[in-house]
Amino acid sequence: MAKLPVLIGRRLGQLLPIIVFATFVVFALLQFVPGDPAVTLAGDYASKERIEEIRQQYGFDRPLLVQYGVWLLHAVRGDLGNSLLSSAPVFDLILQRLPNTILIASYALVLAAMIGIPLGVLAATRIGSRVDTFVTSVASLGVALPSFWLAILLIVTFSLQARWFPATGARAFNVDPRGALQHATLPAIALATGVIAELARQTRSALIEVLNSQYVRTLRAKGLGPFAILWKHGLRNVSVTLLTLLGLQVNRLFSGAVVIEAVFAIPGAGSLVAYSAINKDFPVVQGVVLVLVTIVILVNLIVDVLNALLDPRVAEA
Amino acid sequence: MTIELAAPSLPRRSRRATIWRWARNDLRAVLSLSYLGLLVIVSLFAWLIAPYSPVEQNVAQLLVPPSAEHWLGTDDLGRDVLSRLIWGAPNSLYASSLAVSVAIVLGVPVGLVIGFLGGWIDEVASRFIDALLSFPPIVLAIAVTGVLGIGLTNAMLSVGFVFAPVLARLVRAQTLVVKNALYVDAARGFGASTAHIIVRHIVPNAIQPVIVQVTLMLAIALLAEASLSFLALGVQPPAASWGGMLARAYNYIEIAPEQMYAPGMAILLTALAFNALGESMRVALDPTMKRR
């Protein structure tokens, strides 16, 4: 097996074009704003001189690829421009709000893994049973359930009636961990439901495939018990699939966070992007998209490396 | 062994018989098709069915609970909830079909072409598709909507753009499989043109998983529309949408909690119906699945 740094280097090499394309897509977003970007950025009632100044300042008079290069250089150094609404640096705005999003997203991911994967295993080992039917039906329901509606129902039941959890807002995890988790619980449940359903389904079908394979049949013929087959062979062989699946859920969680943060009035990256899009604050929109897509790509890199450590066959691919 | 099963020249009659048998055996498919058919009828005749105008306000009757006069009550502006629910149906169906059509128009040809051509074009395009797939879909859709201008049509164009790479990747994979199948080699050996091969062999054989994916995508598009309308980025007031109704109901949740059940159920049932239909078609169209 290749050494870890070599492996990471090779994966980064494969990811590099993806990162370049993704950042170019983010950069190109602003290019499609109808009309002259300088006029848009200058806002209403700007003088001709001001517009010309902005055009020079932002380099809109330079070729597109040069603009992209300059933008990327600034972005790498953490300079994502300023908000058109508050004129605060975009990077600072994101840094303030990102922790709230990461908290509910990772909370939801842990919940989803802890519930979804066991449900899938339970169903796969009892195909056609009542348990299987139950898990499959619940999963279909979970996939179709609008998460923001579930969020409202959770607020009505557990905040307004039972008063177990606060209905809205967020606390900083490093200041008040208990309060932060309390505030994040209902949002995380609402966010996790779709992911639980997805994980349960995929775990079920991946495990069924392994348990039906030739070598498991051989093991069974050898007289190995069902428990040993499941733990030593079944789950070990689906672990790579599961890890990849978990990694893929990250961008689903970020998507869901946009609406969930709106419902729970959480000042996070998702509510920031929605608010900024409505108010045409494009540098902020661009910045949030860039940061989120970078996180998604990095998570997938980590998943790739972990997969290679788990399964030497992946490392050679 | 599956080569004969996947052969393109199944006689018409047997295919029709397959579909018929599927409908007879699959209660789930029949139920979801009936529900969706009903929804289409409600959408087409909303102006006839809705008891009140969906936008007419009545300040004398704000947030009235369900009654004989207003079956689902009235909202915070005194508008009839049932009428708004009915008028939300055409908007939802329009939104999901628009997004999915955009995804088909953009994604399918790209997938066919890069899968068929292969080589560096495929390499570059596939990396580009991978890059697009690493964006959180709703976040990208919101960003594109912001740029295009807020409104239902723009929002769904954005969602379609975000879905397109999913279809492109699927069609590319299918094309690769079919392209190297023996019968395509045979057709080529008989001197068939590229266009003939694509139209007569690749499209019919690659289409089945696409149909399944497209049906499942209708559900995701519906949920995306509801989310965007909830955030005021989709259907614009005073027009009715299920997501928008939930956003309003949420503001009056402590006074009139019953307001949020109907629109949520409408979204859930419609998404369930699309998903159930997609799953049924997956089973019915998959040649490797055992027929009952």
Biggest sheet architecture of chain A? none
Summarize model confidence as the mean pLDDT of chain B: 86
**SSE class of chain B:** mainly alpha
- Helix/strand-derived class of chain A? mainly alpha
CATH fold title of the largest domain in chain A: MetI-like fold
**What is the CATH architecture annotation of the largest domain in chain A?**
Orthogonal Bundle
Would you list the SSEs of chain A in sequence order as H and E? HHHHHHHHHHHHH
> Helical stretch count of chain B?
12
Multimer state: heterodimer
Query: Which two chains touch over the largest interface?
Result: A-B, 51 and 47 residues
Number of helices of chain A: 13
Estimate the strand proportion of chain A.
under 5%
Looking at the overall shape, the CATH architecture of the domain at 95-232 and 269-291 in chain B is Orthogonal Bundle
CATH superfamily of the domain at 95-232 and 269-291 in chain B: MetI-like
Description:
- The complex is a heterodimer of chains A (317) and B (292).
- Chain A has two domains: 20-76, no CATH class; 98-268, MetI-like (MetI-like fold, Orthogonal Bundle).
- Helices cover 79% and strands 0% of the residues of chain A.
- Chain A has 13 helices and no strands.
- Chain A has helices spanning 4-31, 37-42, 48-58, 64-76, 90-124, 130-144, 147-161, 177-211, 214-222, 226-263, 269-278, 282-310, 312-316.
- Chain B is an all-alpha fold.
- Chain B has a domain at 95-232 and 269-291: MetI-like (MetI-like fold), CATH 1.10.3720.
- Chain B has twelve helices and no strands.
- Chain B has helices at 3-6, 12-25, 27-44, 46-49, 81-117, 119-133, 137-148, 152-179, 182-189, 194-230, 242-251, 261-285.
- In chain B, helix 6 crosses helix 8.
- The two termini of chain B are 20 Å apart.
- The model of chain B is unreliable at 1-7 (pLDDT under 50).
- The interface between A and B is large, with 51 and 47 residues.
